[in-house]
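Continuing from the previous page of notes. For each protein in this section, the sequence appears first, followed by its structure tokens. Read the first protein now.
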Amino acid sequence: MSTNTDTRRPAATTRLCAHCGTERAKIQRAKTYERLCIACFIAVFELEVHQTIVANKLFHRGQRVAIGASGGKDSTVLAAVLKTLNERYDYGVEFVLLSIDEGIKGYRDDSLETVKRNAEQYGMELCIVGYRELYGWTMDQVVEQIGKKGNCTVCGVFRRQALDRGAGMLGVSHVITGHNADDMAETVLMNLLRGDLPRLHRCTCIITESTSSPISRSKPLKYAYEKEIVLYAHHRKLDYFSTECIYSPEAFRGSARSLIKSLERVRPSAILDIVRSGEAFAEMVPEEIRGSTCAEELGGGCGKGTTGDPSQGGEMSQFEKQLEANEKAVHLETEIVLSPPPLPPSQRKKREKKEQVSKTKKQQLGSCRKCGYMSSQELCKACVILDDLNKNRPKIEIELDEEEEASSNVRRRMEALGLRKSLGVI
């Protein structure tokens, strides 16, 4: 008796969306590994941002909030999502766009055109604040003066103050930025490598407030992956500028980004794992060195060191029993206290100096004597940088157009060549 066996391969089954179960799944999420259709992915992405906003109470009805807009994918997606959520859930918030013009030719001038189009598309007011108007310098001039090393530090100081001044022009006290989970993980890693505890505490907060600034900042995309932001922008056909800053590859952040991307390829959840670890580390930073205040309150009990069995209690329960046993045995102990030997005069002076240094006084907030910006020092950070830059700047600057500048360069080269020939150098 012969049996006929079908050797043909079974037809490939189409994976359906894990949410709706009807449409074909086209996107696999890095965070949850869910396979979703395009419509469900967009809905889930917007819902998660909404939940982040509501859970952390980022803004309230009647508030006027500025969106830090650069024209890139993050700020464009942020503006589009907030406009959608504001209409869908009736936040009652007025959103406006705030852009900073650092003065980088071939990068910022093009991206600002994208921001202007976004302002028209979303019906939002736009304010552009430039480095040249505020500081008399553009980032191109700064890089020409100091080189590419350390330019991001200068830009960061200028940018923070420019955002505050722009927010003042718009009459807002809250600025939201498009920092995503990848950015947060990079910052956590950078601060860990540098051992910068105050910044480690601040960088993980979804809302940050500082005594040196009247403006609070928040990050609604804190838990959104960069890949998903790109997918959202792509499938919603958003208009954004995709070129990165021409000076950013020289920054330390670029090295941290490369490491994060390598970790993500091996373990996609590594990005959120690093962010969560940064939040845990931030809670261990001593209060006296935190610097700025973090408006995010992390609630919940501590489940560290427990076995999950309430009757056993794990290591913490054993530790408590040991403490009780130690307290009962206190009356059986005899304590012998020996007075320390006197210190020599030289060592005594050193100890007194250390004690004076350790007794740090809280900085009092004042105003910069040059620009009037809030500062705990006589000069704000921006003015200190500007003083150093202006020391090496020529006293008189002559504005030349491109043709005049090119002809003057040729003329100077010809004169130098003639001088070298007359001296017999060539």
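Done with the first. The second protein uses the same format. Note its length before scrolling.
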Amino acid sequence: MASASSQPQFRYTQPPSKVLHLRNLPWECTEEELIELGKPFGKVVNTKCNVGANRNQAFIEFTDLNQAINMISYYASSSEPAQVRGKTVYLQYSNRQEIVNNKTTADVAGNVLLVTIEGNDARQVSIDVLHLVFSAFGFVHKITTFEKTAGFQALVQFSDTETASSAKNALDGRSIPRYLLPEHISPCTLRITYSAHTDLSVKFQSHRSRDYTNPYLPVAPSAIDGSGQLSLGLDGKKLEPESNVLLASIENMQYAVTLDVLHMVFSAFGPVQKIAMFDKNGGLQALIQYPDVQMAVVAKEALEGHCIYDGGFCKLHISYSRHTDLSIKVNNDRSRDYTIPNTAMVNPQPSILGQQPVQMMGPGAPNFNGTQYPPNAEQAMMPQHSGGWGSAVPLVPQSMPMQMTSHPYMPPATMPQMVPGMMQMPAHTNPAQAGTRPPYGPNSMQ
């Protein structure tokens, strides 16, 4: 079998035509480059660029047939191949007699985007990273990933064409932010066109496909190995079954984290039904229950790795819990069932899930339990700790909405007033409605 280097530069598989088919062109070859290539042989009257799955093919049309024959004949006998940007170009007659520049599928705007991920480690970009990137522009309905001759690709479905167009215009040609990728993965660039699809078919939730509109879709058997354990995803991490209950671990606790603070933070992504706090492995953990899996997924993706307080204090690490319905036997300062209205909270005491928390306020600071709040702002401020705490942080009633400005993909249009010192969260919104396009500047994605 002939090697790739010995591949003929021209083909006679088609009868002569004034339209020539060019292959192996550089990425996004321009019309000017094609005209310059054919100029020595005659007048190029029409071109069609960036054809094919790899967008590395094109057509050029001469004024008459003899000019096209001259070009094919010259390069058939020349020791110097046709080149564009130093890359060898393969020529052949086209089976068409003229170029009709009808719009291709890639030119017709739609609600589904075809995304090609370029880079040495493109296949290691997880579906969760893609979801984070594209969710910045609106609610992502479905994502499927696959491998083609063009490389590692994904189909991303939005609710409408306008949202998809906003994402395409902002992300095409841009790199995935480094902080979203593991350290061992090299930079990856996104190339985006429109797809002819309008509604993707996702039969299973897996590391290769996801339907965010149907959290009850079964997990693909291929995502589970023979021992019944979840297999590894593309990022090398164990696939984690999604749940409506989140397990939150809090590190660097320089400030006290109360039940009301957790309720305020997690309520930004949907109604919190139950919370249970407990101490484990020398740290504070909490179980937070939502009505459905989708709300938990959105909350986990938005909050993972972020800090409740400015200065890197009270950092959240979130995973899915095996629980689906927490059993809250008593409402106190360590556990709460918000589905039972107007339930009086008993005197603070250890809950069934852990011991009484260690008080972390400075000397002289007021101690608030449950829904009791200070009468004025001065009493709410926690004094600065002599050991180097940051600025004082006020406790805020749980009815006050917050926003998280540190998350790179939270649309700014939904931001209410900020609460000094605390991580700001988006107000109660449906993920499908929080689709305002963020301000992607030239330096916003590295």
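What the second structure shows: The mean pLDDT is 74. The first strand starts at residue 10 and ends at 11. We return to this in next week's lecture.
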